[in-house]
Amino acid sequence: MKNSSFNRRKFVKDTLAGAASIAGLTTLPLDLLASSDRLIPAESVNKDKSLPVLPSKIKFSVIGLNHGHINSQVEAVIRGGGQFISFYAKEEDLAAAFAKKYPQIKRARSEKEILEDKSIQLVVSASIPDERAPLGIRVMQHGKDFMVDKPGITSLEQLAEVRKVQKETKRIYSIMYSERFENKATVKAGELVKAGAIGKVIQTIGLGPHRMNPKTRPDWFFDRQRFGGIICDIASHQFDQYLFFTGSTQADVVAAQVGNVNHPQYPKFEDFGDVMLRGNKGTGYIRVDWFTPDGLKTWGDGRLTVLGTEGFIEIRKNIDIGGREGGNHLFLTDQKETRYLDCSQEPLPYGEQLVNDIVNRTETAMTQEHCFLATELALKAQQQAKTITI
């Protein structure tokens, strides 16, 4: 065998040999900030207290609490070296509930109070999706960096304005693609692919099923104008992973389709979508839906398959259906054998990388162009998607 093949196998063997063999903790389900119907609960909130917390390097604040993803966003920044200073939400019930979770944190009287606080370097947000880009623009214009829940931008017009202001201000506009940044198996897969464990990447297949839980959803959740559409919203994760694993810097949407096939009571909603992609370094397929049945022990059987010239990796993000307990499962098949890697003890570097980028003005967590290109592809696919009826 060639030396490159030998080195790939040696890296994988050494990596797997050092991994824990026990199953990881089960991905916990919904974590509510409040009972308000204006809040969407987080599908997966990181509760791993074993992750280290670094000394504070920056000060940050929160504006907008409409999605429970704000929990994992805040915790990622704190772990990475962020000092949580203040928060603001225009909804009284959401603010009161959040204050109970973080009683030591100052509740600001207005958005303006945070934006004009010169000590704050980063603003974190999980506001209503179509309000995120306008907020991010105001944040950057006040000389602060911005980290936002996905979808971070809901229209091509918003994207053009965000790009313009980011270029003018040189601030960071980071969308937290949590299915990569906050999933340990996906982080580990990135290391393996970079090391050449499966050769040259040919294709990614990303599946993002979700449980709907309509009684927990606010009105805006069912309005495409507010959440951007199913491809813009939950498929944004898969576009990010496609670009990351293939290394593509250019890509076209080959085909896309969306539909509301089983929820006629919500005429502005979409419950299914899929996309085919072709890029300069690989191809991709994406499917997202709101059809996770109640019989599954987690909110969605999220999967990622990365096909390479020398093997493939399959990630079962939240559950190994009918198999091992917990989440963060990685299966690697190469020219020699198939192996399993429990990734539940792997680190999550995004928070630390983002904090360091804020301090050093670097792009180690994610380049700005990657962030915007993933969003651009999602928005174009959403715009081009054919509507299906079944």
TrEMBL record:
Signal peptide: none annotated. This is Inositol 2-dehydrogenase. It comes from the Bacteria. GO terms for molecular function: inositol 2-dehydrogenase (NAD+) activity; nucleotide binding. PANTHER family: BCDNA.GH03377. The keyword Oxidoreductase applies. Keywords: Oxidoreductase. The gene is iolG. Residues 188-314 form the GFO/IDH/MocA-like oxidoreductase domain. InterPro entries: Gfo/Idh/MocA-like_OxRdtase_N, Gfo/Idh/MocA_oxidrdct_glycsds, GFO_IDH_MocA-like_dom, NAD(P)-bd_dom_sf, TAT_signal. Residues 60-175 form the Gfo/Idh/MocA-like oxidoreductase N-terminal domain. Gene3D superfamilies: Dihydrodipicolinate Reductase, domain 2, NAD(P)-binding Rossmann-like Domain. Its EC number is 1.1.1.18, 1.1.1.369. Pfam families: GFO_IDH_MocA, GFO_IDH_MocA_C3.
